[in-house]
Amino acid sequence: MTLETKKSVFVELGKFLSQFSEGASAKKSDVLYNDIFFDDFERLIHLSQSHNGWYTPEQVYFAVKSWAEALTKENIDKWLSNYNFESSRGEKAVALILAGNIPLVGFHDFISVLITGNKALVKTSSNDQHLLPFLARYIIAVDESFKDKITFVEGKLENFDAVIATGSNNTARYFEYYFKDKPSIIRKNRNSAAVLNGKESNEELEALGEDIFRYFGLGCRNVSKLFVPKGYTFDAFFQAVFKYQDVIHYEKYANNYDYNKAVFLMSNFKLTDNGFLTLKEDSSYASPISSVFYEYYENLEDLKSRLETDAEQIQCIVSSDIIKNSVAFGQTQNPQLWDYADNVDTITFLLTIK
């Protein structure tokens, strides 16, 4: 299978995914195999919350839309244009151990393995066992050559040449030991932060709310930490994010809000609270669900040095261009194909497995 053929399959997948949106899904006549897959995928989206309480239809539709926008011919060509696919050392079996914190979180690794001509041995998370296998079936329907390239593994992973594994810091230590003799990418906990200067517009702060509340804050690209200038007051921030108040109506989120707020208060921590989000001054990057940590800074250059030192704890940084290579407000959950997790180039890794 040529690279161009593989690209065309993922373009077709993007076209398929582009049909689905909350309250407005519509079949398009030029999409392949809609008669087989369209209705079943729509049903699966609505069933996802029964498989994982965090996977509300709204959140799954958002994930699907993000992938539909990513999987265009233009994006795929741009993503792969700088690689030498002739350098590949032949097909390798790559074990993928996927997380399940947000819908389709491991999909980038999955398509990277396939587009580089390797075989994917996929171990899904118990929290996300249905969406990726469904899309794999669609890919195989478009081109049966992929049938022998995709295997979903329920038991022990065996007979693989390399591994990409995502988990907590604790499981990462296990992965590093267990896979020490294999080429690997081992991903640990990371969190995202926003750096404010106090001059943000209401629109920018509203967009920051998207970075905080999308997927209920469960993703590594969700903002869980704010850096604000000394003397900053959060009035404008709370006013801007009030539009996300309905998040408290989701039982799992509300339970976390009540529990974490109670824990903070019993520990006599000082909190700022608006009824669905707590703010706590804390030096950590990882805040619990329904809470965001913050720190004051006095010198932006000192903060930049701090962020560089802490780079291995940070997935991405949001700002209005006051931090180099930062992400625009509201865009953390819309990464491009070439925005690699942990800044590790997955394609280069996959093309050079020995």
What does this structure look like?
The protein is of the alpha/beta class and 354 residues long. The chain is 39% helix and 15% strand. It has twelve helices and eleven strands. The protein has helices spanning 3-17, 34-51, 57-70, 73-80, 107-115, 131-142, 169-178, 202-213, 235-241, 251-266, 300-309, 346-351, and strands at residues 93-97, 119-123, 150-152, 162-166, 184-187, 191-195, 223-229, 271-273, 278-281, 291-297, 314-318. The strands form two sheets. Strands 8-9-10-7-6-11 form a six-stranded mixed sheet, with helices on both faces. A five-stranded parallel sheet has the order 3-2-1-4-5, with helices on both faces. Helix 8 (202-213) crosses helix 9. The model has no long low-confidence stretch (mean pLDDT 96).
Question: What would a concise description of this structure say?
Answer:
With about 350 residues, the protein is an alpha/beta fold.
Please outline the helices and strands.
Layout: H1 3-17, H2 34-51, H3 57-70, H4 73-80, E1 93-97, H5 107-115, E2 119-123, H6 131-142, E3 150-152, E4 162-166, H7 169-178, E5 184-187, E6 191-195, H8 202-213, E7 223-229, H9 235-241, H10 251-266, E8 271-273, E9 278-281, E10 291-297, H11 300-309, E11 314-318, H12 346-351
Parallel strand pairs: 1-2, 1-4, 2-3, 4-5, 6-7, 6-11, 7-10, 9-10
Antiparallel strand pairs: 8-9
Helix pairs in contact: 1-3, 1-6, 8-9
Task: Describe the largest sheet.
Answer: 6 strands, mixed
Q: Numbering strands along the chain, what is their spatial order in the largest sheet?
A: 8-9-10-7-6-11
- The oligomeric state is single chain
Number of contiguous helices: 12
Shape call: globular
Q: How do the helices and strands follow one another from N- to C-terminus?
A: HHHHEHEHEEHEEHEHHEEEHEH
Q: Which whole number gives the mean pLDDT?
A: 96
C-alpha-based Rg, rounded: 21 Å
- Low-confidence segments, given as residue ranges, are none
Helix-strand category? alpha/beta
Helical coverage, percent range: 25-40%
Cα(first) to Cα(last) distance is 21 Å
The proportion of strand residues reads: 5-15%
User: What is the number of E strands?
Assistant: 11
